[in-house]
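NifU family protein
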Amino acid sequence: MAKIKEIERTPNPDAMRFVLAEPLTNGTTRSFENAAEAEGDELASALFAVDNVINVYYVDKYITVTQDGKAVWSELLRKLAPPIREAEAATHEEDDTDVHMSKEVQGSDDPRLKEITRMLDEQVRPYLLADGGGLKVLGLESNRLKVHYQGACGTCPTATTGTLYAIESMVKRIDPEIQVVSV
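Predicted structure tokens:
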């Protein structure tokens, strides 16, 4: 059973991050944007069963839950705590290779994508995770890099402005012609 160690606010006022005493996963990230996507995942399905939950993102000792902005956090937290406490740590988990990059990106031989992915893994994703979210690279078409924010970052105003600008600045060091768009 997962023990909640702390509950932290994120830069997104509609998302909270639960810090657990023991890991739920061993490095495998899970990201769900609706109840249908969460089908088959016991924890995410239980969290989506709580009214107002619109996103569930978790990895290791962190679970981020995003609400639709219509609930009062003090009341919502009381409803979210039981399914989190009842969650079992994964004993055998399959890695979701699609969580950080699309199959198109995984199959690409474009050296720019390989360098961008490495840079994101080292310089961006750890900071997004600290704020309760992540980033998926969807593809590079001509000079347009499509990314999708996950977890708390998905509906955060800071992600779609400041963070996106910072990512684009880093990517331009790899190729000055690349433009980054969030979808």
